[in-house]
Amino acid sequence: MSIFEYNGSALIAMVGKNCFAIASDRRLGVQLQTIATDFQRIYKVHDRLFIGLSGLATDAQTLYQRLVFRHKLYQLREERDMKPETFASLVSALLYEKRFGPYFCQPVIAGLSDEDKPFICTMDSIGAKELAKDFVVAGTASESLYGACEAVFKPDMEPEELFETVSQALLSSVDRDCLSGWGGHVYVVTPTEVKERILKGRMD
């Protein structure tokens, strides 16, 4: 088994009309044994920027702590929040720094720029960025997530429709992956508000 699949995970970020959604499953497992059913994979950097970390859970938590530290230093020096593009470059640099003993994580970054334009990207464990204009996925359920997202995505969705689309894609995909699941955690972010919702899924 790959070390990336050890804890199981499913992550997805999708853009809408001046908004974005980022969603994850809630299962923390050790291979096929479920350890927790309320594990947090999505972290808030600031009100308009979120990061999801799939892969090895311990590395994800360590990486997040280092990113918080770097972001706070940036806020103190610049007296403003980091733009999503800048933050993606920071994450990429941090991962590449450790390329000979990498963090076993696949980050998914989603944010709104100053012009309220959604930005999403993902990268591999050594920081090679993959930018997208529709959706990005990561984790053990990524194959079925690609299929579900391709089927349901359409451009310029309003926040409520975007929530529905992301939720359906996530729930139907984790049903096809035994290492992720146990409900979902969805954030829908618009220029004025952040909506957080918990989804109930199959509990097996």
Task: Give a structural overview.
- With 204 residues, this protein is an alpha+beta fold.
- It has a single domain, classed as Glutamine Phosphoribosylpyrophosphate, subunit 1, domain 1 (4-Layer Sandwich), CATH 3.60.20.10.
- The protein contains four helices and twelve strands, in the order E-E-E-E-E-E-H-H-E-E-E-E-H-H-E-E.
- The protein has helices spanning 57-78, 84-97, 142-152, 159-174; strands at residues 10-15, 20-25, 28-30, 33-36, 42-46, 49-55, 105-112, 118-123, 129-132, 135-139, 184-189, 194-199.
- The strands form three sheets. The protein has a five-stranded antiparallel β-sheet with strand order 10-1-2-11-12, covered by helices on one side.
- Strand 1 and strand 2 form a beta hairpin.
- Helix 3 packs antiparallel against helix 4 (159-174).
Question: How do the strands and helices of this protein lay out in sequence?
Answer:
Layout: E1 10-15, E2 20-25, E3 28-30, E4 33-36, E5 42-46, E6 49-55, H1 57-78, H2 84-97, E7 105-112, E8 118-123, E9 129-132, E10 135-139, H3 142-152, H4 159-174, E11 184-189, E12 194-199
Antiparallel strand pairs: 1-2, 1-10, 2-11, 3-4, 5-6, 6-7, 7-8, 8-9, 11-12
Keywords: Cytoplasm, Nucleus, Proteasome
Protein name: Proteasome subunit beta
Main location: cytoplasm
The coarse silhouette is globular
Straight-line N-to-C gap: 21 Å
User: What level of helicity do the residues show?
Assistant: 25-40%
Number of helices: 4
- Structural domains: how many: 1
Family: Belongs to the peptidase T1B family.
Pfam families: Proteasome
Organism: Hevea brasiliensis (Para rubber tree)
GO cellular component, one term: cytoplasm
